[in-house]
What we know:
Blueprint: E1 77-80, E2 85-95, E3 101-111
Antiparallel strand pairs: 1-2, 2-3
Amino acid sequence: MPAIDATAAAPVASEQTVDAFDLRQMRSPPGASFSAMRPRCPDARAGEIVVCAPDPEKERLRPLPEGYEIPQGPPRLEMKLDENTSADLHLQAERFPNGMVSNRLMVGVKRKF
């Protein structure tokens, strides 16, 4: 029988429940390490409901300090190539007479002489 006609036997999957899953028994590939972490929330006793949430203060944005000024317009990226030459990248919006707006990413080169 040609090899193309031969059908491989399907592997038999072992039945496991979610309770049987344990990261401590997982084999890690070379160069990687896995570890089981203790949950931050306490275990619930019979008849209790434990609600556990991340700390909202951990990733909260704080107000800007007094006197901080936000520059008008989008940021401009400029790089000095040599003593007399610099290159920049900036955004530009141009309005046409028919009301359409063309948003552009512009590259500029400046040379002092």
